[in-house]
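Q: Please design a sequence for this.
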């Protein structure tokens, strides 16, 4: 059987993590792996999650199956979090899923069931895992331009021009906030223009919301999703709880769909659950149960929101500090975009050779496309890091 196989290429980020671990240099800096880190370099369990887990331990009386859609109370709470308390719940359906990735995967499969041979447009660049997750459903992918490396801005006109050529019924994957890998996001006016285009061209939005609360705030980061939900007849949204509840390994997210009306939504939902049944049967429960406890309890919700806000502010101030340090070291404002970006990532614009040189000569680790995790920036050594980067990238672009 297996003699027909050749080895799959190693995952680049996992390989980078291994290299970092084995690097004996004391001042090494890890800007690679995509998890939030505190000032000590740890990814702690949030206080509200720990408290909810204690309550869960005391209260949970069975581990029997929860069902294909997971816990309906968790799902209802997630509708509130993502779509807002005023959401038109009659046309929204939600299914707990194994992480944002699981939600993306079952929604892609639902799209393929609804429209065999569908085309899904992905931003260039996008999170590399979008490609296999979406293509595994058998759909075709196309790219739309998104990021201008020279200015660090969204190539909005080029993006709109490409999407104007998409066929009615095509699916467009959008990052809800905190674009990974670039950190460059649509502003409110641009979201408005996107919504208008989607309605006029009959495009189907598929929104990936993996960092709600990491950008401008929990409500602000849902602006695009909520705007689209109020305008388009149908859409899909994959939300992840990995980052904003820091429950990465416990695997929880939510797959949402919006139908034209309640009856259409029910039919599509029954197909979504049948997809889930055929792929993993039922989602894991543990973190979803803990999150349900948090969202049902005012005190725990307040504690979670305040810790999330502290994390968000830390990332914003690291961005500002790093952009300042790069301005001092480069005598230019060419890295100022880092302070304007939002979320955990930015692309600093180094070539793959420069990225390798930073690793080999300075012990600075980042992904080959020069994506950095801003939560990994060392707040007490920003000038040293900026000096290393400028020594490799040069003072002028
Ligand atoms: C853009 C994007 N979408 C989805 C995910 C999925 O996260 P998870 O499956 O861990 O919930 C990630 C994680 O890095 C991401 O960056």
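A: Design:
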């Amino acid at each position: 059987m297996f003699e027909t196989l050749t080895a799959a290429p190693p995952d680049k980020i996992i390989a980078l993590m291994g290299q970092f671990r084995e690097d004996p240099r004391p001042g090494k800096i890890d800007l690679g792996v995509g998890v939030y880190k505190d000032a000590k370099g740890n990814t702690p369990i949030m206080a509200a999650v720990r408290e909810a887990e204690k309550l869960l331990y005391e209260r949970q009386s069975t581990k029997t199956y929860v069902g294909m859609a997971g816990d309906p109370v968790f799902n209802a709470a997630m509708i509130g979090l993502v779509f807002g308390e005023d959401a038109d719940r009659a046309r929204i359906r939600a299914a707990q899923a194994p992480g944002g990735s699981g939600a993306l995967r079952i929604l892609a499969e639902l799209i393929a069931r609804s429209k065999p041979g569908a085309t899904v447009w992905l931003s260039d660049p996008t999170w590399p895992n979008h490609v296999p997750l979406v293509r595994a459903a058998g759909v075709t992918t196309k790219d739309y331009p998104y990021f201008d490396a020279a200015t660090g801005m969204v190539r909005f006109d080029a993006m709109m021009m490409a999407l104007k050529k998409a066929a009615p019924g095509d699916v467009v994957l959008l990052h809800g906030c905190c674009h990974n890998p670039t950190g460059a996001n649509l502003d409110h006016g641009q979201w408005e223009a996107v919504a208008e285009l989607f309605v006029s061209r009959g495009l189907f939005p598929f929104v990936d919301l993996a960092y709600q609360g990491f950008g401008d705030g929990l409500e602000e980061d849902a602006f695009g999703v909520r705007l689209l939900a109020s305008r388009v007849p149908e859409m899909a949204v994959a939300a992840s709880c990995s980052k904003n509840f820091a429950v990465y390994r416990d695997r929880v997210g939510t797959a949402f769909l919006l139908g034209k009306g309640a009856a259409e939504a029910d039919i599509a939902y029954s197909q979504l659950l049948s997809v889930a049944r055929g792929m993993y049967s039922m989602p894991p429960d543990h973190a979803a149960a803990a999150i349900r406890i948090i969202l049902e309890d005012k005190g725990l919700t307040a504690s979670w929101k305040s810790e999330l806000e502290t994390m968000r502010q830390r990332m914003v101030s690291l961005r500002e500090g790093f952009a300042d340090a790069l301005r001092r070291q480069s005598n230019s404002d060419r890295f100022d975009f880092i302070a304007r970006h939002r979320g955990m990532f930015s692309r600093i614009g180094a070539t793959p050779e420069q990225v390798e040189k930073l690793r080999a000569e300075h012990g600075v680790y980042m992904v080959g496309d020069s994506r950095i995790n801003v939560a990994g920036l060392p707040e007490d050594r920003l000038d040293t890091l900026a000096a290393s980067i400028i020594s490799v990238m040069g003072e002028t672009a």
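Q: Thanks. Anything notable?
A: The first helix runs from residue 12 to 22. The domain at 48-296 is CATH 3.40.640.10 (Aspartate Aminotransferase; domain 2).
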